Amino acid sequence: MFAHSTTHGTLLARIANPGDAEAWPEFCAKYEEMIRAFARRQGVMGANADDIVQDVLMSLSKAMPGFEYRPEKGKFRSYLKTVVVRSIYRWRERESGEARAQDVDEISRAADNDEALSVVWEEEWRQHHLRRAMRMIQAEFNAADLACFQAYVVDGEGAAEVASRMGMTTSHVYDAKYRILNRLRAVVADQIEDEG
């Protein structure tokens, strides 16, 4: 796993440096799953979703030499959204056989003004952070507490039912929920702060 200590601005500066061989794998590990999941939510399935991921990464790799991250210009996730949406638009054009010349600014404006698309992107962005946080904390909690959390919080079983089935007290179920949720909140907050 890659070090969490690398801030997002630093990671973006590193991928702009062609001599940093570890930056791209770190960036890909961080964002591939999110790009693929968003593409699927836009109706791009199977190998086509993988093609979208590759197209986005290729577009980013071309744009990165000389790239300077300036948070005051906007959030990176907004820029990433534009690149992903542009790739999906191009895929749809190829699939339909209709070529429509759209420049980046036009696609960016369309993506920013499409409320439904923005809602889906933000939801996927939140889910992305939650998935990453869950993977990170799995090593921090025992299997019983994680199973308890899954059953009670994620699957929505009753606390008494979970306690009975797992041979623990109801207060243990509540305690596991509290400890894991607090840790998840902290990890997600760190990830979001890291992205700027």
Helix and strand topology:
Layout: H1 8-16, H2 23-41, H3 46-63, H4 76-96, H5 104-113, H6 115-137, H7 143-154, H8 159-166, H9 170-195
What is the radius of gyration? Answer: 20 Å
Strand content: under 5%
Oligomer designation: single chain
SSE series: HHHHHHHHH
**Major β-sheet, in short?**
none
Mean pLDDT: 83
How many domains comprise the coordinates? Answer: 2
CATH class of the largest domain: Mainly Alpha
Class by alpha and beta content: mainly alpha
- Taking the alpha carbons of the first and last residues, their distance comes to 22 Å
* CATH architecture verdict of the largest domain: Orthogonal Bundle
Low-pLDDT segments, ≥5 res: 1-6
Percentage of residues in helical conformation:
over 70%
Features:
mainly alpha, Rna Polymerase Sigma Factor, Chain: A, Arc Repressor Mutant, subunit A, 74% helix, globular, disordered N terminus
Report on the structure:
This protein is an all-alpha fold. The chain folds into two domains: 1-114, Orthogonal Bundle (Rna Polymerase Sigma Factor, Chain: A); 138-196, Orthogonal Bundle (Arc Repressor Mutant, subunit A). It contains nine helices and no strands. Helix 1 crosses helix 2 and helix 4 crosses helix 5 (104-113). The longest helix has 26 residues, at 170-195. It is globular and about 60 Å long. Mean pLDDT is 83; it is low at 1-6.
